[in-house]
Design a protein that fits this description.
Layout lengths: L4 H25 L25 H15 L2 H12 L13 H6 L2 H7 L3 H15 L17 E3 L7 H10 L2 H17 L10 E4 L6 E5 L11 H18 L2 H17 L21 H17 L3 H18 L19 E4 L4 E5 L2 H17 L14
Antiparallel strand pairs: 1-2, 2-3, 4-5
Helix pairs in contact: 1-2, 1-13, 2-3, 2-13, 5-6, 6-7, 7-8, 9-10, 9-11, 10-11, 11-12, 11-13, 12-13
């Protein structure tokens, strides 16, 4: 538990100052480039992408910097990088349109509620919802029609939003059906989560759990579980269905029980003697998810526990073992993230979603600590 709140505040402000430096360098060195993960600390390389799901996280970081600083330069950059992905609003080949548009265009709309911005968000949500498969009652992953990923829980929120904005009850009901299917087949009784579930494409019958990024099919991939904590919490916010809140809290309990006291998990809790014992992007997502859950839970004691645990995670990530502030020539913000361990992609590196959710959690933590958000120019000495 954090004992010195002011000290944590100061380190959060210093982290934003460092993020400002790193992001300005990225935009200057590689304009209009959308990195996914670093290689030896460098963003620009020719490594495999596997799928195109990260293009919103850079623009999302720029919106978070604008929210923190209120400096027009960040807003201009955020708008520019948001516009660069507008064409993806009709992309039916991926399950990740929530990642792309919630972090960019929705944040833009929150600052400037203009109809043309909202129209893009709604179209992206309708596109995402169009992937629904009646046989099986789920939204398939990009891999194949029989594949259901836990990651999709982070993208279903934009479908609920589009349904609410458009009054499309079929879209709303399909999104809810997907969440119930995920809850039934991917979330286990102990609160752990499978990465992937497979279905018979002809009958819709569920066949088995498996994984692409965890240790094995019946294990517990850390980032997948954080998608569940955050995603089911978000779905509860939209629906008010207490079953989704209970699921988020069950997954949260598993995370806390299985993680070290500092709050940063390995890539998979079940992997024996992992070569890379830290997955900082999962921890960053978890910190943001726990802060959200603290506001959603109906149990005040549990809410304080969630908030304190989120701050413990951030206290860890703000140390130089994870924050790259003392690592010369490292271009990312948060070290020790993992993209795809089996493929050897972005292992023990900075990853774009880790950067985004880290900044999101830091910003939310400032509110949680009841601290004002000074501009970067007014930050404490770092």
């Amino acid at each position: 538990m954090i004992q010195n709140k002011r000290s944590l505040n100061e380190r959060i402000h210093c982290a934003f100052a460092f993020a400002s430096k790193q992001l300005r360098h990225l935009l200057s060195a590689h304009p209009d480039y959308f990195p996914m993960y670093t290689r030896n600390g460098k963003w620009k390389h020719g490594g495999e992408a596997w799928t195109n799901w990260c293009e919103g996280f850079l623009g999302g970081q720029l919106w978070l910097m604008y929210t923190y600083t209120k400096e027009a330069w960040w807003r201009d950059q955020a708008i520019h990088y948001s516009r660069l992905i507008e064409h993806r609003k009709t992309d039916k080949t991926v399950h990740d349109l929530g990642f792309l548009f919630w972090s960019t265009w929705k944040r833009w709309y929150d600052h400037s509620p203009e109809s043309f911005i909202n129209d893009v968000i709604v179209e992206a949500g309708r596109t995402a919802g169009s992937r629904f498969r009646a046989r099986g009652q789920y939204l398939p992953s990009f891999v194949s029609g029989e594949s259901l990923f836990i990651d999709i829980m982070m993208n279903v929120g934009i479908i609920f939003y589009a349904a609410r904005q458009s009054g499309d009850m079929t879209l709303w009901e399909n999104a809810a059906r997907h969440c119930h299917t995920t809850r039934r087949y991917l979330i286990r009784g102990d609160g752990s989560s499978a990465h992937e579930g497979l279905f018979d494409r002809e009958t819709g019958e569920f066949t088995r759990q498996t994984t692409h990024q965890g240790w094995r099919g019946d294990s517990s991939w850390a980032r997948g579980l954080t998608w569940a904590i955050y995603g089911f919490g978000t779905v509860f916010r939209f629906t008010g269905d207490s079953r989704f809140l209970r699921t988020a809290e069950d997954c949260a309990a598993f995370y806390i029980e299985r993680s070290p006291a500092h709050g940063v998990p390995p890539n998979d809790w079940s992997e024996p003697d992992p070569a890379h014992p830290y997955e900082s992007s999962a921890a960053a997502i978890a910190a943001s998810a726990f802060l959200q859950l603290a506001d959603l839970t109906t149990d005040a004691v549990r809410g304080r526990m969630y908030r304190g645990y989120a701050l413990t995670i951030l206290d860890t990530l703000l140390q130089s073992n994870f924050l790259a502030i003392d690592t010369p020539n490292w271009e990312g913000i948060l070290k020790r993230g993992i993209y795809h361990q089996d493929k050897g992609l972005g292992v023990n590196e900075s990853v774009m979603w880790g950067e985004y959710f880290f900044l999101e959690a830091l910003l939310d933590a400032l509110h949680s600590l009841s601290d004002k958000k000074p501009s970067v120019s007014a930050r404490p000495a770092c």
